[in-house]
Amino acid sequence: MRILKRLSALLLSFAVLFGLVSGLNALMNPGWQVEPYKDHIRPATADTAIASNRGATTPEGHYQTKETWVSVKLAPEVSIQAIVREPVGAPAGHPACLFIHGAGTGKAADVYGDLASALASAGITTLVPDKRLDTYTTFHRDYADMAADYGKSLDILRSWPGVDSAKTGLYAESEGTWISSIMTAQDPTLAYSILTSPPVYPGRSQMSMAVSSYLDLIGAPAGIQAQIPKLMGMNFSPLGLEYADFNTLPNWDKLTQPTLINFGTSDDSMPVEQGAQEITRRAAKAGNTNVTLRYYPANHQMRMGSLLAKAGLPLEPHYTHNLEDWINAISLGTKSNEWATPMIAGVQPRQLFTAPRTTHHGLIGSVGALIAVLVASFVLPALALVGALFLVIAGSSRRRRSTSNTPAFGPKIVGLLWAGSLASLASLGISLAYIGVTATHALQLEPLTANMIRGWTELKLLALLVLVVLAFLPARALHNRMAAKRSGDQPNSYTIMACHARKLPAQSATPRPAIAQGWGHWMVLILALAGIVCCLVSLSFWGLFAW
């Protein structure tokens, strides 16, 4: 009968715990998800060539090129270096192009060399400046200020000998397209805008799509993919990442310049179809229908040989030729109805997921709060352990000096307490390690093994096992309390044996508490339980209790 009562108490305790963590898990979900993308674009042809009905354009390699280093003053105490590459012997009044960095580059000497030289050989003067790095960090970026800085380089390029300022435009990649969108919105006299691999949408929206794509490509479990909205909906300001919410969509409403959009079909980090349609639609509302779209079998940087950005990869062989033909055709005055080639062409794109229009958070709404819970999950049990060691030392000294019983935990409480703490910590630690390994695979686009995929289900089973271990704790406390009542507050066998061993009178023995006795023991108990609760909150956040 007692066994049945204990089992019933255990099952009830587990059911209550499971209900609590399941409800907590539901509250963690922000109520939105990254949806598959369905509105696919159909290129008119696979041929990416660009030609104008206004006439032939200067081909690549027609001119020898000259390289000149210049200094660009951005502020009274700040100057950067820039490289001008120009066509030797080109007639006055030829076009020019300012290059704007993406997120992964900084020095003019390290980026765009092959691109800028190729354009110069086709009669287009180019300027590649250093990126200003004293105001650009992982945690802080002001795109409006960066646009103003690039404007200083633009002024130099427009006044360069032989350049027609009315034929000067911008080339930007990736993050740089956010900057160029500000510049084109503010300066309608810019001749054109080239947008290569533009993220188009605010950072957290675009990254929601990108991470979902990466996880899907490596075969990550659905449970892992379901965590993206929780993470991407958070407030990143505790880390200083306010630029994750930079919204350049209003700037596309002012895109009146002829525009060339380039995407690599091997680039799963960008909204290659949704973004192109967004820009085209917004430009059209501004009266600009001169938007050309090209898709290449290339990666994010229009290079071939790897899906990832790696040094030394060759550009897609048609890419620079098409850039030159388009810029020179625009310089001839080509309108949207004067192209001899389709406006949309190239390899068939296939965007996997939709960049969400809105993002919001669940119960844990801040990165700072999540970090605090994770830290507390490990720190609180550590403090409890230190407190427990102190109690052992203090208790040993007290027993030598006193004839009365010392404060203590209830029978078997301390063992269950540490078993629950260790089980919770182990489950959380292994789960975080699993998530870290999965993230590494996603960044490298390395498919997960079958064991790794199965590992997510095993982690969820481990989390359930943690609940089973924890369920013994309240069940045992209840058992201790009932046992004390049955004993009628008489000394139990444990305390009587302890008194005999120490040659104390039996009447000095008192029953051990159901849970704990003494402020020190209660403090250790509270710290350990608080650590367990933080672990359960963390496991709930990562979806380990979603069944």
UniProtKB/TrEMBL annotation:
The keyword Ribosomal protein does not apply. The chain crosses the membrane at residues 367-394, 415-439, 459-478, 522-545. The keyword Membrane applies. InterPro entries: AB_hydrolase_Est10 (IPR053145), AB_hydrolase_fold (IPR029058). Keywords: Membrane, Transmembrane, Transmembrane helix. This is Peptidase S9. The lineage of its organism: Bacteria, Bacillati, Actinomycetota, Actinomycetes, Bifidobacteriales.
